[in-house]
Amino acid sequence: MYRWLLILLFWLPMALAAPMPPSPIKPLTLLTESYPPFNDADSAGNPTGISTHIVTLLMQKAGLSYSITVVPWVRAITLAKTQANHCVFSMSRTPEREASYQWIGPLVYNDWALFAKVPADRLDRLEQIGQRAIGSYQGDAIVAYLASRGYNVDATVKDELNPDKLLVGHIAYWATGKLIGQYILRQQGRQNQIEPILVFNRTEMYLACHRSTPEALVSRLNALIREMRQSGEIERIYLQAGYSP
Hints:
Residues 1-17 form the signal peptide. This is Amino acid ABC transporter substrate-binding protein (PAAT family). Keywords: Signal. Residues 27-245 form the Solute-binding protein family 3/N-terminal domain. The protein is α/β, with parallel strands linked by helices. It folds into two domains: 27-109 and 204-240, D-Maltodextrin-Binding Protein, domain 2, CATH 3.40.190; 110-203, D-Maltodextrin-Binding Protein, domain 2, CATH 3.40.190.10. 36% of the residues lie in helices and 27% in strands. The chain has eight helices and ten strands. The strands form two sheets. The protein has an eight-stranded mixed sheet, sandwiched between helices. Strands 2-3 form a two-stranded antiparallel ribbon. Strand 7 (134-137), helix 4 and strand 8 (153-156) form a beta-alpha-beta unit.
């Protein structure tokens, strides 16, 4: 009996000191908005778009359980900021947002453009618009970018409302992503009435996750994104959607 007690006393400290196996990663709730052609929902309500296909492939390569849901943008960014195991895409990575999330990407690039009613003079720089009203939508990084530089921004609840506001003269310009703006105009049949006149910024768009997301997982996903870009998989997703990266 004493022999077994001695053996137990010898092995017990080592057993207690042994590292515990890592806890399984909980399913990720991935939130996005209707922001075509990067993210959207099809006629059946299923998430689609360039960024959505990139994120789906990324999750599959990482072997993670996940869901993707299309919700209003303000709700998406709030949940990813306040709820563990939540992420949002496609999020522009800005200094104002940097400390609030864990960043994976970039997934895609987004050229910010000013649109105007045809016929419109081309602009060389943003400063030429003065204090004329610029349309955008609530929660978009473009709003913070323009407002912080003293521009007169009129933000609505949905970007799709801005072409109407532009055509009736409620705003002088519409600021949005160039691809997004062109997509919305094609959907509304207004591509001959409104046109881009200035690209004023380029941003990288990411999968932004709650701050509690494990660093090891973030590093792993970033490594996979780099591999997907180097292998041409991301470029193929763009081309299948009818765009070039």
